[in-house]
Design goal:
about 675 residues; alpha/beta; six-stranded mixed beta sheet; about 50% helix; about 5% strand; globular
């Protein structure tokens, strides 16, 4: 029962160790050490911005925004700055300056610290992009996020926030939707000024320009900003990358507009990775600073799409383009759709994509046609599916077909036993079609909002439906909650069989279906162990489902033998076993597995996602367009995600002329 309810009594030491392991695996090992801006070594010192924060009576009340930089001070790392300001620090910088990297460096320093006080603290990294105005107080948002991503019980989170156990690292104040950014700042300041949370250490990152436009300043103790990269430093990096970067280096010497673009580490790294491969003939960027920056991003994408050796296997003779079966045009198109799906309003997966958490509701609904591929739908069937929402997710069509097939296969033996071979088969067909039509209506029409509003009737909402997990536990208390509904359903089936045959046969069929139903309904997911690799939870859930099916068949055989010895109609038990196993497909791991498969089918049906989503994500990772982050995926950098958000999926860049391997 502790797995199903709030784990408030969980051992604090074990919980603290689990949180620290998760932060290291997902954010430090999977995020910091695989970031693009860490590929090239560049000097980016931190400079103090004393007027960027509100320190109460110590602040200059007449100033607002980032303010001027303070006088030069000896260089120091982000951990030293955080320590000087009591662990409450604001990190500012331009896009691509390395704000997130500095935040993750701070997390790594806290994890590696040998100080007893630091070892007792738990650094947690959270994305402010998930904050919503309707969330309420900021501490409520923290509790919800830590429960969702770190599996910390609400009572334990509240206690840790009050005693200062947590070091909260918040990334991307500028990524909060603009209409809610001021309210997020207000909620965060209320939290920071609350005496109950005075011991919480907290660091926040934000773009300088967006921060300047906020109506107030954060109530932190200090602020630093990342200094721009010197032109000489960028040229040194180009020179160290080899002769392939010489034309670009000479252009920065002649053109001040081009040189100004390489004042951030990201632009330097993208240029080095794009040009040094020497397997594609890329043109030099021209235009003003904004055009050059956009062109560098485009050239990097082109280089990664068409390079003849992937980064993960960059040895001579390694596999060429299309190793996993995805052409450059398919890769570009799917990455553009994926970026739009992740950043659309209301998406919980704005930065990190967890394959195990994807559900059909993640795909766009009616009213979001801008996310659909160009040229769809066509024909009368296409227009019909667009009207009922099937071109968005196709979950209604998928669910209807699956329900028809499952019901026909699993109810047919029971029908044949009750009414004979031919009448039983003839009666199973219309019953199966009726069930399929019901599923099609509920999930294909009402779920896709054809009338502009939710019409869900008695359906579960997305938050309450179990998703794939790395561990499943059967809990008797959970099964007990479903005894009455399961008994009513099994009794209805048993009544039909009993009326058609004998009362004992109906009782045997009802008991068999009830046992299978409670076996599936009592399964509870345990999310305390995060997946070690993407898709692991889905794989485990599928394995649990297969085990359950085998267990149900074995249990049915044992029941049949017992009924035969007792002189009861054991044939009724065998006929009801398929119906009993059918319940595993709509409960627990079976439902989680089916929902993910429905998403994949729906995404490929509408052209938004590939049918082989897992191999595609690995393919994009090998091309350094995506990166792994623990059990999920993220774009190699936020700037690349923003690039694909605004990219036209149909306008695939062509391979540069002369793009052949250099011998």
């Amino acid at each position: 029962m502790a797995l199903y309810q709030d784990r408030g009594a969980e051992n604090e030491d074990l919980a603290r160790q689990r949180v620290r392991r998760y932060t290291r695996r997902v954010w430090v090992d999977g995020g910091l050490h695989h970031r693009l801006d860490g590929t090239v070594s560049l000097a980016t010192p931190l400079r103090e911005r004393p007027n960027a924060v509100d320190r109460g009576w110590l602040s200059d009340a007449g100033r607002r925004g980032a303010g001027p930089e303070a006088a030069a001070r000896p260089p120091r790392g982000v951990a030293e700055w955080a320590e000087e300001y009591g662990g409450r620090l604001l990190i500012l910088g331009e896009p691509g300056a390395g704000k997130s990297t500095q935040l993750l460096h701070l997390a790594e320093d806290l994890l590696d610290s040998e100080e007893p006080e630091d070892r007792a603290r738990c650094p947690v990294v959270l994305l402010l992009s998930t904050w919503q105005p309707q969330t309420g107080s900021f501490d409520r948002w923290l509790v919800a996020e830590l429960r969702e991503h770190y599996q910390i019980a609400a009572t334990l989170t509240d206690r840790w926030l009050r005693d200062g156990t947590l070091t909260v690292l918040l990334d991307g104040l500028d990524e909060v939707p603009e209409e809610g950014r001021a309210r997020c700042l207000e909620a965060l300041n209320t939290f920071l000024r609350d005496a109950d949370f005075a011991d919480v250490r907290i660091a926040v990152t934000c773009r300088s320009t967006e921060y300047d436009h906020l109506p107030a300043r954060l109530a932190l103790e200090g602020a630093v900003s990342l200094a721009p990269v010197e032109v000489a430093e960028a040229q040194r990096a180009f020179r160290a990358a080899g002769a392939a970067l010489d034309p670009l280096r000479r252009q920065t010497e002649r053109n001040a507009e081009v040189a100004a673009v390489f004042r951030t580490p990201l632009m330097v790294v993208l240029a080095v990775l794009a040009y040094r491969d020497r397997t594609t003939a890329l043109p030099l960027p021209t235009g003003d600073a904004a055009q050059v920056r956009k062109e560098i991003l485009r050239l990097y994408v082109v280089s990664m799409l068409y390079r003849h050796r992937v980064l993960a296997r960059a040895e001579p003779g390694s596999s060429a383009i299309g190793e996993r079966g995805f052409s450059p045009s398919e890769t570009y198109c799917y990455l553009a759709h994926l970026a739009r799906l992740m950043t659309r309003r209301g998406s919980r997966l704005r930065t990190l994509l967890y394959v195990d958490e994807l559900t059909p509701e993640w795909l766009p609904r009616i009213g979001e046609e801008s996310y659909l591929p160009q040229g769809r739908p066509t024909g009368w069937f296409g227009r019909f599916t667009a009207r009922v929402g099937l071109d968005h997710a196709s979950t209604g069509l998928t669910g209807g077909v699956l329900a028809t097939c499952f019901f026909a296969v699993f109810v047919a033996p029971l029908s044949v036993y009750a009414w004979g071979l031919l009448p039983g088969l003839l009666s199973a067909v219309p019953l199966s079609l009726a069930v399929g039509l019901l599923v099609f209506t509920l999930f294909g029409v009402t779920r896709m909002q054809p009338f502009g509003r939710d019409v869900v009737f008695f359906l579960d909402d997305e938050a309450s439906v179990p998703r794939a997990a790395t561990r499943w536990t059967w809990v008797a208390a959970r099964a007990a909650r479903w005894v009455l509904p399961a008994a009513m359903g099994a009794g209805a089936c048993g009544l039909v069989v009993g009326v058609s045959t004998t009362a004992v046969s109906g009782l045997v069929a009802a008991l068999t279906i009830l046992v299978g139903g409670l076996l599936g309904l009592g399964l509870v997911p345990d999310y305390r162990r995060e997946p070690d690799y993407p898709g692991e939870a889905l794989t485990v859930s599928g394995r649990v489902l297969r085990t359950l099916l085998l267990a149900a068949v074995a249990l049915g055989g044992v029941e049949s033998a017992a009924y035969a010895l007792a002189g009861w109609p054991w044939q009724a038990c065998l006929a009801a076993v398929p119906m009993s196993t059918c319940l595993f497909m709509v409960t627990g791991p079976g439902r989680a597995w089916l929902r993910t498969r429905a998403l994949t089918f729906g995404g490929s049906r509408s052209g938004l996602l590939p049918s082989r989503l897992g191999p595609f994500l690995e393919h994009a990772t090998e091309r350094a367009l995506l990166r792994r982050a623990g059990g999920g995926y993220a774009y190699a950098h936020d700037a690349l995600q923003e690039f694909f958000v605004h990219a036209d999926p149909g306008a695939v860049p062509e391979e540069p002329a002369g793009g052949r391997p250099v011998v």
